[in-house]
Specification:
The chain is mainly alpha-helical. The chain contains 5 helices and no strands. It has one domain (3-63): Orthogonal Bundle (434 Repressor (Amino-terminal Domain)), CATH 1.10.260.40.
C-alpha cells in the first residue's frame, strides 16, 4: 500500500474530507489530493502534523498498518 493510499484510508476512517484534513494541518485541499494520488510526498514538517491529525505513528502513516513482527 502506498503512502497516498494510507493517508486516504486513515482520513476516511476518521470521517474527514480532504478539506477537513487540509484545514487541520494548514494546507490546501489540493495538496491532500496530490498526496493521496501519490503525486506529492509529505514533507518532514507535515509528517508529524498528519500523524497527529490522523492519530497514527510515522511508520503507519508512511507504510501502512503494522504487520506481525513489526516493532
Amino acid at each position: 500500500m502506498s503512502t497516498g493510499e494510507n493517508i486516504r484510508r486513515l482520513r476516511r476512517e476518521d470521517g474527514y474530507t480532504q478539506k477537513d484534513l487540509a484545514r487541520i494541518i494548514g494546507v490546501k485541499a489540493t495538496y491532500i489530493s496530490a498526496l493521496e494520488r501519490d503525486i506529492r510526498r509529505p514533507g518532514r514538517k507535515l509528517i508529524p502534523l498528519l500523524c497527529d491529525a490522523l492519530g497514527v505513528d510515522e511508520m503507519t502513516l508512511l507504510y501502512g498498518p503494522r504487520v506481525i513482527g513489526y516493532e
